[in-house]
Amino acid sequence: MAAAPAPPAARAARVGLLYDERMCAHATPDGEEHPENPERLRAIWRKLNAEGVASRCVVLKAKETEDKYIASVHSNNHIKLMKEISSKKYDSSRNKIARKYNSIYFNKGSSESAVLAAGSVIEVAEKVAAGELRSAIALVRPPGHHAEHDEAMGFCLFNNVAVAANYLLNDRPDLGIKKILIVDWDVHHGNGTQKMFYNDPRVLFFSVHRFDYGSFYPSEGDGSHCFIGEEAGKGYNINVPWEHGKCGDADYIAAWDHVLLPVTEAFDPDIILVSAGFDAVLAAAAAAASNATRTAAAALGDPLGGCCITPNGYALLLTKLLGFAKGRIVMALEGGYNLRSIANSVFACAKVLLGDKFTFSSPEMQPFESTWRVIQAVRDELKTYWPVLSSKLPENLSLRIKPSPSELYASSDSEPDGEDVDELSGALSSVNVIQFADDAISEHLSKMKLDEENLAVKTASSCSTAEHHPTDSVEVDIDGSVVLSKRISDLSLAWRSDLSRTHVWYASFGSNMWKPRFLCYIQGGKAEGMSIPCCGSRDTSSPRGTMWKTVPHRLLFGRSSTPCWGTGGVAFLNPEINYNEKSYVCMYKITLEQFNDILFQENRLVLEDGKNGNVVYPDSPLIGSSEVEFMSTNKAIHLEPIKDSWYSNVLYLGDEDELPILTMTCPSSDIERYKSGELPLAPPSKTYAATLIKGLVEGKQLDADGAASYINAAAARGL
Ligand code: X5A
Ligand code: ZN
Questions:
Q1: Where exactly does CATH 3.40.800.20 map onto the chain?
Q2: For the chain, where do the domains classified as CATH 3.10.490.10 start and end?
Q3: Which amino acids bring their CB within 6 angstroms of ligand 1?
Q4: Helix, strand, coil shares of the chain as percentages rounded to 5?
Q5: What architecture does CATH give domain 15-389?
Q6: From ligand 1's centre to the CA of 379, what distance in Å?
Q7: Are 220 and 191 spatial neighbours (Cβ–Cβ below 8 Å)?
Q8: Per-residue pLDDT tens for 227-258?
Q9: pTM (2 d.p.)
Q10: Which of 34, 78, 146, 503 is an active site residue?
Q11: In this structure, are residues 306 and 251 in contact, taking their beta carbons and an 8 Å threshold?
Q12: CA distance 158 to 535
């Protein structure tokens, strides 16, 4: 029998569109403002109707799901709590429970919304898998991708997409879905989903997100490209972690073309689930306004994301996926908090699914320079699992330089200080303590006269030569490196006034976490526990701010004694990033001039002229503006002139408040020497450890026991 031509209705792609007002019931308990609010769904729904798109779709209502399906992802306790949290029983404790989570609120509608959101993604996924629909969009909330096995977080209660994926794989073998690709393009890392399928090769999880070296929400480090899956799932977890905000269409397209699409081709999924957050969006109207500057335009975009995808950009990303899995695509809404942007973006995506043609034109198709670096790193990490990633990237790639800090600042919440968006959910992110003003410090440590006997450095020696100005002195450092010094009085200290105008965050991880000890490096003198006074900085003004963070670097205690602290090791940070590590740093906002003076003191480069008690600093800075610039790209600078000193390696740990975060530690070569046993690892002396503990406790990071075990653990672990 000759095949009858398909009727027109069947030829047009059947696109499911799930919307249900019942998922608007989840809202803040007292109508407080919150970015994740019911208006998000309504705004999208209105737009799709106004544009005549809803009527072209198969419109579906939300569906509850059974606990047993949610249980494939979440603990029974979690399910029970989420399902009961809206009941009377919790009326008096609901808010308190919410506060225990990170970025979560509950009200009387939360339970129903959450169950419907999970059920709805199951519902559309099933219909697409069964071929009843070609593709579908589930407009659901609360979102899901941050929700973990036993925990709600990041506005997410149940992990809707993960529940649906498990449903298809485990409960519906009849549908023949054996391999699922999850594409998570929400601007935040899909931490929950990643964990769910971390050792499962049936699910390829791909997340592209702002990472900012681990400081962007959820600030866990798990979003690093090094997290590639485990056991059988190795290679089936792919993270593309942007280093900064402002990534836009061009950057995402590059990630698609050079990572996601080649891998998808090889993986050959049976269905694609998109964790479709639209919080990396740039408001369409703003983008269209031809003479709007990038910054002004971005400011109209998502209040949380600080990225620049346009609605057409999303449409193109989606179009590029349509070629796989026979076009079986299920989009589930995740984040996205600018109402106009999310409405326009979902509208653009719906048209793609419906088969409408669109033209993508972007005036600026240049990915950032950092984008290529990130993509290359991802490819290197995964190429053994996906050989197609082994090829060289095209050579003549065009580059755009990293946006300036002020440009970034205008449109991002990479510094999640709560303010407008998170009042309800309490503190979050890697910035774990309040920034406080430093003028509160009244205690002024008097600059002590240096005691010649106790100097941590050798005094001027015999190696002065005639080549130098008579008042110059040449010093042989403890480790043998030669340092040229001049008397301050002789110098025109141009670099000092220069660098006194630049501020940086000095991140301390050792005894300097205790502020009185740190201040010795600024004001001179010694604090409790120190046997040698510091000479201080030339500029003795107090830091402009203090702030704590954790950084993904390993804390270790090495060397076996110091003149100041006696027998025992002192703190170093492994310069290598390790996302399994969390070390506390106390950051002080100081001038770059002061930073150099600290670097001099840490490396014992400041001399006392024995004759008249003058303090002699090196005559040129180790870190100037160009070194800072260099570090922002290269993450570290090993200072050649003092390469054998203990703290010759300056690390760049990211930015805060538009300023670079710098710290000083040992070079990687020393880490190798620690590993080989050539250099000793040694626990800190009691006084030294006590100083760190005081720092952590007075800085409100840990209680005394917590701080002690943090130090002990770092001292006990081998490298
Ligand atoms: C789903 C989503 C964001 C949470 C941000 C918390 N969550 N500051 O976008
Ligand atoms: Zn998000």
A1: 15-389
A2: 497-716
A3: 103, 143, 146, 154-156, 186, 188, 217, 277, 279, 304, 334-335, 416, 422, 428
A4: 35, 20, 45
A5: 3-Layer(aba) Sandwich (3.40)
A6: 27
A7: yes
A8: 999 999 999 999 999 998 889 999 999 999 99
A9: 0.61
A10: 146
A11: no
A12: 57
